[in-house]
């Protein structure tokens, strides 16, 4: 199996707590709901998403020939 790139499916703003999930049908990030309530955070925040160097998007065998 060759290497595959797996994009993130969820993200959280480290500053305000806004939570979003990737919607494959819309091909866009959507505000997540928790207990029926949207996790909007601060609408004026310049979001700092928690996707950083610890997230590894590569799956499978990287050295496949």
From TrEMBL:
Top-level taxon of origin: Archaea
InterPro entries for this protein: HEWD
Domain HEWD span(s) in chain numbering: 1-60
Pfam families hit by this protein: HEWD (PF20576)
Protein name in UniProt: HEWD domain-containing protein
Source organism: Haloterrigena salina JCM 13891
